[in-house]
Amino acid sequence: MTVDESQDKRGLPAVQVRAATKVYNHGAEDEVVALQDIDLDVPEGEVVALLGPSGCGKSTLLNMVGGLVTTTEGEIRVAGSLVTDPSPAIGMMFQRPVLLPWLKVIDNVLLPLKVQGAESEHSQDKANSLIELVGLAGFAERYPSELSGGMQQRVAICRMLIAEPQVLLLDEPFGALDELTREFMDVELRQIITSQGRSAILVTHSPLEAVFMADRVDVMTPRPGRVAGRVEIELGADRSSDLFASDELIAYVRKVRDLIEDAHAEEESAGE
Amino acid sequence: MSERTKSALTFVVSLTAICLVWEYASAQEYVNPLVLPPPSEIGVSLWFFAQNFLGPAEYWRDTWITIQEILLGYAIGVTSAVVLGGLVAEFKVVRRVVVPYTVALNATPKIALAPLFIVFFGFGITAKVVMAAFICFFPVMVNTVAGLVSADDDQMKLMTSLRASRWQTFRRLKMMLALPYTFAGMRTAMAFAVVGAIIGEFFGATRGLGFRIEFAAARLETANLFAFLVVLSLVAYLLYALIEAIERRVVFWSGGLQSQGKP
Ligand SMILES: Nc1ncnc2c1ncn2[C@@H]1O[C@H](COP(=O)(O)OP(=O)(O)OP(=O)(O)O)[C@@H](O)[C@H]1O
Ligand SMILES: [Mg+2]
To answer: Could you give the 3-state DSSP secondary structure of residue A218?
Structure first.
């Protein structure tokens, strides 16, 4: 790779979605236009939150970026390269931890490397330091069934990070947790993302979580799914739990809520 | 007193009570002792069995032959069921070819095929092994397939996102998901294998516990018949307990599933 090329790529957003459309069961009678003409950029090192009602295509968009679902029209680039298949540049987290119950915590964390045959002598150390980073020191040799839901989601965080992906795709990662645990996990994950310089797309149903976690919140509307509005969140890169109670954050949350309501009202009137 | 000791104690008490009532009923000739011998006579027969285990009648040979039939049949049945189950779950072509036959055969009462196997394989051990293998096959196969296709969307999405090959997904996810199912099938199959071997012996044998039971029945030696039944039950119980113990070690993460399939 020449110096020029690498500099070229440095300016690029981590994720670029251009006029992406997704039609499920294309051409069939039961075809569903899940997404229409979506444009979305995630700048390098930033977190973009997707907020919107159920069925507006948030998971579809995330799966398209992750290469799990094909794009009907338009194109998606991750770190400059066109997405066709799942890419090593991407790490994913789902609403459920999806740990394998027959593997110890450490082996669950190492799974991505094992699957790729990419385990090295440092892998164990790396996994252990990730496990420590999420506050699970001493649990490496336990089985998932011995862990609480929140602890299991932490293991899923480690598994997502072990192969050092540049872009994280988070589909309601803490949606199944209680509110207090969720806020706690938000703080932790945001700190990890910032300190490791990752980029991320976060899908959530909570405006509060969206504002806390993201540098930009995109509000989506359904049928067909599209982005109805965006709010830039300027709360700095380092975010601690104090922020949850701050006036600035509350103001942003109100702004996002207004945007959701406007989008909803527009949709209602369009539907009449 | 622990739950276990309580259960054991209750069992001993109830068994003693049943035996006493039974003994009394026999002594009063409420029942014909030829039809239902008193427990004391069965006890004598069991003692006779014990003496003859290594002694003149060499009952150990009968016991050993039946155990061999069961275990050989079991091994063959389980192995072929797991292999075919894997192929059926992974390859559509195999599924299309095999499934209609398995559905039809599973609906057949498999014991009804015993005379056919005797015709095919004669009066030796082979017919019994085949019968046991045949009857073992279905619960293991049906359960293995059910387990192999039990991966949910999230689990498949995880493997795809990790860029796992088909083989990796099979080995690291599907196979492990199937293990508890396969073991549930193997538990049932163990009970079935005993049935298969004994039925095979009923239709023609010169040795084996099933043969001894039939022989005793034909000569109206009911007490002996009961004694052989007790020994057979003990063998079946020990084999079942062995499989259960292996299951607990291998699929430690699962609580033990219920099995599908019928004899
Ligand atoms: N595999 C599929 N086949 C057909 N239609 C699908 C499929 N997956 C999703 N859809 C449809 O696409 C639309 C968007 O679904 P998607 O799961 O992306 O929504 P979502 O915004 O993630 O919803 P939620 O908030 O409930 O998770 C829905 O109308 C859904 O019914
Ligand atoms: Mg979703």
So the answer is: strand
Provide the token pair at B177.
């998901």
Task: Classify A151 as helix, strand or coil.
Answer: helix
Q: Give the C-alpha separation, B154 to A17, whole Å.
A: 24
Asked if A108 contacts A144 with a C-beta cutoff of 8 angstroms, the reply is yes
Question: Which residues of chain B neighbour A145 with C-beta distances below 8 Å?
Answer: 253
Of B168, B176, B254, the CB nearest to A115: B168
Segment (H or E) for A108: helix A105-116
Phi, psi (5° rounding) for residue A237? -85, -40
Instruction: Tell me the Ramachandran region of residue A98: left when phi exceeds 0, alpha when psi lies from -120 to 50, beta otherwise.
Output: left
ipTM of the complex: 0.87
Pairwise CB contact (< 8 Å): A115 & B253 = no
Asked if A98 and B155 come within 8 Å (Cβ–Cβ), the reply is: yes
Calculate how far, in angstroms, residue A30's C-alpha sits from the geometric centre of ligand 2.
Answer: 20
Q: Does B172 touch chain A (CB under 8 A)?
A: yes
Q: State the pTM of this model.
A: 0.86
Does residue A120 have its Cβ closer than 6 Å to ligand 1? no
Q: At what angle do helices B125-148 and B92-107 cross, to 10 degrees?
A: 130
Residues A175, A185: Cα–Cα separation, whole Å: 11
What's B174's DSSP letter? I
pLDDT per residue as tens digits for the range B98-134: 989 988 888 888 888 888 998 899 888 999 999 999 9
Total residues found in chain B within this entry: 263
Q: Tell me which residue in A94, A96, A111 faces B162 most closely, judged by beta carbons.
A: A111
Q: Is the CB of A32 under 6 A from ligand 1?
A: yes
- Cα separation, B31 vs B26, in Å, equals 6
Q: Is B175 on the interface with A (CB under 8 A)?
A: no
**DSSP code, position B263:** -
Q: In chain A, which stretches have pLDDT less than 50?
A: 1-9
> Which ligand is closest in space to the CA of residue A23?
1
pLDDT at A4: 45
